Fold:
Amino acid sequence: MVCLVSRSGRELQRYNNMGFRQVVGCVPYRYKADVNGNIMSNELEVLVVSSQKCQKFMFPKGGWELDESVEEAACRESLEEAGVIGIVEAQLGQWSFISKRHGTYYEGHMFPLFVKEQLDLWPEKHVRRRLWMSVAEAREVCQHWWMKEALDILVDRLITSQQQMEDIALADSN
Structure:
């Protein structure tokens, strides 16, 4: 069972030693599949969500709270904002940035989330849109430079991993 209410408020919000609010996000991804869910290729798809305030797209992200690990925060944000559940993989990086809307400093942590389940109902379904798209499309629509950098790191990581697997398979066949 999934909780259908998003956390709100800043009482449990984490701040780093410089006073930057800490936020955590994910790049939800999967490999393109047919209508029966069978993986068709190594073609990567990523999930973006619309902002609550406007219809600009980004990856799910939100505040990291005192009562959770950074990985738990990543899972929670992906569930609340995008309605997906999956496996949080090794951190893609950490960025410092200034919020355009508030003019305040943030520290952002990004993780890949290999999506295992997409829910029909999720906490922010009525305030956000979610869209699966290609990496190239996501780079075009994503509004945050630091999220685009995280996406590039994920793609490089997955390509390297795929190449290593192919090298192992080739070595085994010889």
